[in-house]
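Suppose a colleague, Dr. K., hands you the sequence of a protein chain of 124 amino acids and asks what its three-dimensional shape might be. Before reaching for any lab equipment, you can write down a predicted structure in token form. Begin with the sequence itself:
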Amino acid sequence: QVQLVESGGGLVQAGGSLRLSCAASVPTFSIYSMGWFRQAPGKEREFVSAISWSADSTYYADSVKGRFTISRDNAKNTVYLQMNSLKPEDTAAYYCAADSALVVHTTPREYDYWGQGTQVTVSS
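The predicted structure, expressed as tokens, is then:
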């Protein structure tokens, strides 16, 4: 069983930055692709970013490309999401997820494990 715990959310003004972290409690963390998703009230969960197990491939939603950066530290069992130039439309609960498949997926249903989420609120 993989447990994921997100942290780093909060309230920030538009144009500001936040760094989300997701710590995994599993010794085989390095075999999982990791993704970040977000869900705003009344909306479906949407893909934000993903990274392969080796960190050699990264993927971003068009809405965050150039502003967000995903990374991982397999020695610390942690994946990060650096969010810069935040906009009010980035306001949502952010979730990290782990996927044991060899390919990197961008759809929520492909992921095996989920964290509880961390709230990000961007004020205008």
